[in-house]
Design brief:
- The chain is mainly α and 117 residues long.
- It is 85% helix and 0% strand.
- Helix 2 packs parallel to helix 5.
């Protein structure tokens, strides 16, 4: 039961953070901020929380970061760009995916270095 509550509370916080970023970041930039930050943080958390309790890992990774970055938000934005034009949709998908992978790699590199974040 503690694990379900950890995911639930983390998810609530992550979803609220995503909504806040979408409210304060202009235009369609919010999805970029959320996806890049989330990609960086999920890998950093995986490295840094490896020895922590299951509840801590579930709260942060599955709950907080998982709800902060949702694939459905990406899919919704991608569909919007795809409706504008096929090339715009493809460019959006390729660019945001490549940038997210680069952010994840940075999170891995920083996580392995062991210094402060």
């Amino acid at each position: 039961m503690k694990r379900f509550l950890a995911v639930g509370f983390g998810g609530m916080i992550g979803a609220l953070l995503r909504a806040w970023i979408y409210a304060v970041v202009p235009g369609g930039i919010g999805i970029w901020v959320v996806n890049l930050a989330g990609s960086f943080l999920i890998v950093l958390a995986a490295v840094r929380l490896a020895g922590k309790s299951a509840e801590s890992r579930l709260f942060i990774s599955t709950g907080l970061i998982g709800s902060f970055t949702t694939f459905s938000a990406f899919s919704g934005d991608w569909f919007h760009h795809l409706n504008q034009s096929l090339m715009q949709g493809l460019a959006f998908a390729i660019c945001i995916t490549a940038a997210s992978v680069a952010a994840a790699a940075l999170g891995l590199w920083i996580g392995r270095k062991g210094g402060p974040v």
